[in-house]
Design goal:
Layout: E1 2-7, H1 12-20, H2 22-28, E2 33-38, H3 45-50, E3 56-59, H4 62-69, E4 74-80, E5 87-92, E6 107-110, H5 115-126, E7 136-139, H6 144-149, E8 155-159, H7 160-169, E9 172-177, E10 187-191, H8 192-197, H9 199-218, H10 220-231, H11 235-243, E11 249-250, H12 254-270
Parallel strand pairs: 1-2, 6-7, 6-8
Antiparallel strand pairs: 3-10, 4-10, 4-11, 5-8, 5-9
Length: 287
Amino acid sequence: MTVTLGVHRSNPSLYHLSRLGYAEEELAALGETVAWHAYTDGVRTGALLADGTIDFGGTGSTPPVTAQAAGHDIVYAAISAPRPDHGALLVPEDSSVRTVADLKGGTVHLAIGSWQTHLVAQALDDAGLSYATDITAVRGGSGSEAKLRAGEITAWVAQGAELAAARRTGGLRTLVRTGDVITDRSVFFTRRDLAEQRPELVEALVRALRRADAWAAAHPGEAAAIAAADQGGTAEDWETALRALPWTIEEVGEEFVAEQQRAADVFHRTGFIERAVTVADALPRKA
């Protein structure tokens, strides 16, 4: 069979795997082939799995939860180690916002539906505030940093090379360090039929991810040059961002399930998802 892997720019492990050939090598040993489906919005991963467009994908922490809430029967395949310095919630250096509680009534730019929603929702919840009612969450874009610097918005969640560039430019302050609120793991998941009927394929893909991560960890300059040429920004900022990642793939365990359940409960309480989710339902069933 041909196994279709989803790839988008926000998942660095799959992004580099798509350029290295390791997935093709691992599946060829099983007599299978690989195809790649590129898309721009990782939030769509659950729907793409459900309609058969892809067989395996990876995102941050939020999309698997929203996929379950939408009724998609996904199965977690692997996770990255925590990424504490992958992103941050920024405010202007001279902003009167000194604590998360000070965000009340403000406008926050973020990638809605991504791990950034998890970060903001959890930080607000920890401060006794609600993502749904105490801030105005707006989908961020290329102009978010300029709006923040101009005082047009209250805060902005930045990640990767854009975070490195913003910090290098100066004038902004970290209000929330991601690792102080959530683990912000990369999360890899698939459909239940593939996970339970062809587990050897999933295991082969996880091996390929580990190989790709090992390559990126050993060649940060080369990985940064690839990302900069394709996605923009400077190779220096990309290298700063990539060096901050753990490049370690782990098995799904009880600690991760508990982390995801905490996120799912916050999302449901704030109305970000309409129905409660039991994260453990997205584990393989025991034979």
